């Protein structure tokens, strides 16, 4: 099966923490992403929202726009209200031929609150999942009909964080709701990456390759840090980092067995002053590419 390899710009500039890479120009990020060997990149906060500006910029560096994050609030809004909220974002993604809308349910999230422990996140009662799933499916079907399908991002600090919550979401939604499988967030939430990947292989629409530093995660749990404090302290890293805990060769083999064909996106929120973005982008690229052929996955540009 053929896959494409992309990267997220968050290793250069963090939208939630401007002090991490806020000084790094977008052009440097794009140039280094291409230099490291990637053929695509996800949208970041520094990217222009005008497709007439964005497309030539991406073309200049030989990069495709993979997709873009959207902070969903379907719990707090009606289906029609949520469609209205996402319309401009969708229009941009369609205009530059992006593959997916990265959608996360962020009503009440604590992911951007530096003084709030991630343990204080909101939760969604199990009895709410059927109605929520029905609304989410309708939204996903609409996005697919508009030409940019949904990849739902389970994310720390949100109501869909843990393995059991991913399972509930998938069971109560239709096929149009694709799963964004994020290795780092799943391990962060103490989930089983192999079991979750095998269980929902047919629903995986997008993949984030993110690694975890166990020593930092242990401190985060012991001292009840916020998500952003964890980011600052280096809880995340990339494939290929010897400090990381995730076996990406094994993960890629599972994807290959399941016939995954789509984007693999390296993503790791790090402080660029501590983790040089180009060095880590290259580290991840080389590690992932080395694991593709043994996994039965073919890389295409």
Number of helices: 11
The description of the largest β-sheet is: 10 strands, parallel
Radius of gyration: 18 Å
| Proper CATH architecture | Alpha-Beta Barrel
- Measured distance between first and last alpha carbons: 13 Å
Q: What do we call the CATH homologous superfamily? A: Divalent-metal-dependent TIM barrel enzymes
| Quaternary | single chain
Please state the overall shape, judged from the principal axes of the Cα atoms: globular
SSE arrangement, N to C:
EHEHEEHEHEHEHHEEHHEHEHE
Q: Which range does the strand content fall in?
A: 15-25%
Helix-strand makeup class: alpha/beta
Tell me the domain tally.
1
How much helical structure, as a percent, in the residues? 25-40%
Could you characterize the architecture of this molecule?
The chain is an alpha/beta fold. It has one domain (2-299): TIM Barrel (Alpha-Beta Barrel), CATH 3.20.20.150. It contains 11 helices and 12 strands. Strands 1, 2, 3, 4, 5, 6, 7, 8, 11 and 12 form a 10-stranded parallel beta sheet that branches. The longest helix has 17 residues, at 79-95. The protein is globular, with a radius of gyration of 18 Å. The two termini are 13 Å apart.
């Amino acid at each position: 099966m053929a896959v494409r390899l992309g990267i997220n710009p968050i290793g250069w500039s963090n939208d939630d923490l401007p002090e991490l890479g806020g000084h790094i120009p977008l052009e440097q990020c794009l140039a280094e992403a291409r230099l490291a060997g990637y053929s695509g990149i996800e949208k970041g906060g520094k990217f222009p929202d005008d497709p007439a500006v964005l497309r030539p910029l991406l073309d200049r560096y030989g990069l495709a726009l993979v997709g873009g994050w959207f902070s969903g609030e379907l719990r707090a809004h009606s289906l029609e209200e949520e469609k209205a909220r996402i319309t401009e974002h969708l229009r941009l993604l369609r205009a530059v031929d992006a593959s997916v809308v990265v959608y996360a349910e962020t009503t009440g999230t604590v992911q951007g609150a530096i003084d709030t422990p991630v343990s204080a996140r909101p939760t969604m009662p199990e009895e709410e999942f059927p109605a929520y799933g029905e609304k989410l499916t309708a939204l996903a079907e609409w996005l697919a009909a508009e030409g940019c399908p949904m990849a739902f991002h389970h994310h720390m600090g949100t109501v869909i964080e843990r393995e059991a919550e991913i399972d509930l979401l998938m069971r109560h939604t239709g096929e149009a709701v694709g799963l964004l499988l994020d290795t780092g967030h799943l391990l962060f939430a103490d989930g089983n990456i192999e079991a979750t990947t095998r269980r929902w292989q047919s629903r995986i629409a997008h993949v984030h390759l993110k690694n975890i530093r166990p020593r930092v995660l242990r401190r985060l749990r012991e001292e009840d840090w916020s998500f952003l404090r964890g980011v600052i302290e280096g809880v995340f890293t990339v494939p290929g980092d010897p400090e990381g805990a995730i076996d990406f060769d094994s993960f890629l083999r599972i994807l290959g067995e399941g016939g995954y064909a789509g984007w693999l996106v390296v993503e790791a929120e790090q402080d660029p002053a501590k983790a040089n973005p180009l060095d880590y982008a290259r580290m991840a690229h080389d590690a992932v590419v080395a694991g593709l052929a043994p996994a039965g996955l073919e890389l295409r540009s």
